[in-house]
Specification:
about 500 residues; alpha/beta; 15 helices; globular; EC 1.2.1.-
Amino acid sequence: MPAVPHDEWLRRAKAFQLSGAHHIDGAEEAGGGAVFPVVSPRDGRVVADVADGGAAEVDAAVAAARRAFDTGPWPRLAPAERGRALLRLADLLEERREELALTVSLEMGKPISDAYGIELRAVITTFRWYGQLADKLTDESPHTAPDALALVTREPAGVVGAVVPWNFPLTLAGWKVAPALAAGCTVVLKPSENSPLSALLLGRLATEAGLPPGVLNVVTGDGPTAGRALGLHPDVDVLAFTGSTAVGRHFLRYAADSNLKRVWLELGGKSPNIVLPDAPDLEKAAATAAWGIFFNQGEMCTAPSRLLVHSSIAERVTEAVVRRARELRVGDPLDPETEMGALVGRAHLDRVAGHIRHGVDEGARLRTGGDRVLAETGGTYLEPTVFDRVDPGSRLAREEIFGPVLSVLAFDDLDEAVRLANATEYGLAAGLWTSDLSTAHRVSRALKAGTVWVNCYEEGDLTVPFGGMKQSGNGRDKSAHALEKYTELKTTWIQL
C-alpha cells in the first residue's frame, strides 16, 4: 500500500473525473446519448455520468469484436505476441494502480487499502499470468495406426461476451478477459451499472497497450437492456457471467432463444466454514471466520456466511468472532485505516437489513451488530453482524445475503456437520478446521463445493481453478482450465 494519507485520497476524490463513454473498436463512443449516474456509496454523491447502452451499442461492440476476430490480426498472432500484449497491459495497470484503486473505492465502497493491495494486485497478477501462459499451451497428437495421423487442436471460440458484477469489478473482469484474450478470442465486456468506471479504464488501457481495435470492447448499461442484448446476440459465441443465480438463469434462456451459445456461470454461494474441536488453533479459526465474512463488506460469493461449530467449542469460538466484529473499524473507504467500507448502494443496504430483520423474527439470537451506522455521511454503512442459535431451515441459514452477516450453527458430530454443510442449493466453497489428516481428506471429499480450504480460507493463486457445483454454476475461472471455456476442440484425421 503506498504511503498516501487520508487527506490526499480525499483531495484526489474531489478532483476525480473520468469519461463515461463506451469503449468500442478502440475508441470512446457516446452511444445514443442517454446516461445514468454512478453514485458513490461512501457519501451518496454522483461520481460520474456514464453512457447507458442498449441493443444498438451492444450491436456496435459485437460487430467490432466480430471484425477483429474474423479479419483482424489478434487470433492470427503468434501466441507469444498475444502474451506480450497482455504483459504490456499488466504493466499499464501497475503504472495506474493508484488511480484504478481510487476508482474502485469510489464506485463500490471497498476500502482503499483493499482496492490497492488486493483488488489491483489480483488483476495485475491475472494479466501477467495469462500473458506468460499464452505461448505454453500445447495441442495433442494421439497415437494411431501407422497409416494415419490424428491431431487434436484447440482453436479460439470467437466473440466472448463477459458480464461481471460490482463486488470485485476488476478482478472478476480479469479472470474472464485475460484467458479469453490469451486464447485468441475477442471480448465485449459488460460491467455492472454500479461499477462501470474501472472497466472503462481497463478497456482504454488495453488499447494503449497495443491490443488492436475491437479486441476488447466495454459497453455500459443495466442488465435488462445491455446484458440481455449481449446474451441474445447471435454473433456472440461464448457468454461468461459472474453474478446471482437468478440472473444466471436468464442467460441460459437467452442462449436457448438465440444461437445456443455456450454459457459459463459463476453464481451465488452460502458457504459453510466447519470448525472441529481438534482445530490446530481455535483463535486463528475464529479470527479467519470473522475476516472472511466481513472482508469486502461481506459482498463475496465465497463468503463463509455459515459458521458450523462443534457444540463443545461453539460459545468460545462465537465469542471470539463477536469480539472481533466489535473491534472492526467501519468507516470512509478512502481512509487507509478503514477495515470495512460501505455496502454498494441503498437498495442493497435495505436488502441486507431486511435479512437481519427476518433473522430476528425467525428466532435467531443477534449477538452483535445489525444496525446502520454513519448515516450522517450519506453513505451506506452497516455494522458487522453475528447471529447464533440459527435454525438450519431458516432464511438466515439458506439464502445468500451478500453482506456482513454471519450465521452460527452448532453440531454434535461430524456426520451432522457434513449434512448441515451440504444442506444448501449452492456449492461454491467451504472451509474446514481440523488437525486430523484423514478427517481433512474424508470431509473435503464429502463436501459439495468447488473449493475446500483446510485450516485457512480464501487462499490460493492463479494455478488453481475457481468455480462451483449445484446452483453455484459451472465452468471454472483461473488456472489453465479457464482457457477451456474460450476454445473449441477440433479433430483432424489425416490418412497417410
